[in-house]
Amino acid sequence: MSSSKSEAAANADSKIERRTSALSFKPFRIYFGGTVLAMNALRLGAVAQGLLMWELTGSPLSLGGVAAATAIPMMLVNIFGGVFADRYEAKFLLGGSAFIGALLFVLLGVLDFTDTVRPWHIFSIAIFAGFVSGADQPSRQAYFPSLVPKSAMKSAVTINGSLMASASVVAPTVGGLLMAEFGTPFGFFIAALGWFAMFAATVLLPRRGTSIVQRSVLRDLGTGIGYIKNHRVLLVLLILAFSNMLMVFGWIGMLPAYVELFGGGKREVGFMFSSAGIGALSGIIVAGRLSPGRRLGWMILGGAASFSTIMLIVSNSPSLALAMPLAALAHFGNGLFNISSIVTVQLRVPEDIRGRVMGVFAISQSVGILGGLWTGSLATVIGLRAGMMVGPAIMLVMISVIFLTQRKVRNLHEDPTQDR
């Protein structure tokens, strides 16, 4: 009898632990406040940058080119950013990235306001912004889990993931309306304030600490890559994340061109961004609340498949009114896929190499920006609608192959100890 009571108590304690909110901890609340403003700044800046480039050139390829100018340096820094996040104090890397990011938005805003901005200015600043974001992403992924106990990890990952999605709801709509009224410089200046707020938040945050072992950067990088390579599930999820962001998510970079198909402008671009953000945020929230047990793998693959399937329909939408809810539904699947994947990885990575492993995974976000070049190049050759369809079609084939051949991924359990 006493044994049964003990087991019941243990089960109750386990359920309580799983419900622990990351927001119960003050350091995470400070991080949350700064990140809310920073992510809105990042999204608002991206919308303003795309609109400005479209006004100057009217070329889908130029939109993809700006995406590539940001993504390539971001990927280069991501490769080593996880090593630096383990080797040096992550909160200082976050603060420095936020401060420099704010200055870049101020510079672009001044050039735009004085009517001296040229496409090469946008490309140049995008390159520097790529280096900044490349340092920010792995530092962020390595840092925020240290602010909460493991019992709040799922909550922390869900909240952190929801911040970008929620920013995609608020910033594009409000920013699109304001920029339609006051111009794109206003968007850049507001975005700069958001990054300055993130810098201020890092001053108040505790230190994470650094890795005791100091070896060559390349050897430390090899540790993270080797860990992923030796764990089949993580390797497959990494490939899936890269492919999804490159071949499907890149359509976001084409929004100014896509909206123009229906005679839309700045407001409509903002509405489309927000539609995608609403869907992604909903998917993230649902992923954080679900307990799929042994169906975690099905949820990950199903989310990715639904994103690609619905994007094929969005590509052929006859109206913007229909495209908006479809985009929301598509990004619901993407949010479900992304957060479920990140939680899966975070729970399976040792703390002492978290930065290195998550730095490699952070590259997938950079690849998502680079996806704009993929879609833009295809759009230039075969047309925008057809160009948007190629990636999702390839992705559906990949997901089917993974489902049929990768039993460990298909049978993933939300509890790592229950994997089989």
Descriptive account of the structure:
The protein has a single domain (24-207, 214-418), classed as MFS general substrate transporter like domains (Growth Hormone, Chain: A). It is 80% helix and 0% strand. It has 16 helices and no strands. The longest helix has 32 residues, at 26-57.
Assign the CATH architecture: Up-down Bundle
C-alpha geometry: globular
- What order do the helices and strands follow? HHHHHHHHHHHHHHHH
According to CATH, the homologous superfamily is MFS general substrate transporter like domains
Query: What is the number of strand segments?
Result: 0
Structural Rg: 21 Å
Quick summary:
The chain has 420 residues and is mostly helical. Helix content is 80%, strand content 0%.
Structure keywords:
single chain, 420 residues, mainly alpha, Growth Hormone, Chain: A, 16 helices, 80% helix, globular, disordered N terminus
Give the helix/strand layout.
Elements: H1 2-18, H2 26-57, H3 60-87, H4 90-113, H5 119-143, H6 153-182, H7 184-204, H8 217-229, H9 232-247, H10 255-260, H11 266-289, H12 296-315, H13 320-346, H14 354-382, H15 384-405, H16 407-410
Helix pairs in contact: 2-3, 2-6, 2-7, 3-5, 3-8, 3-14, 4-5, 4-7, 5-14, 6-7, 6-11, 6-13, 8-14, 9-14, 9-15, 11-13, 12-13, 12-15, 14-15
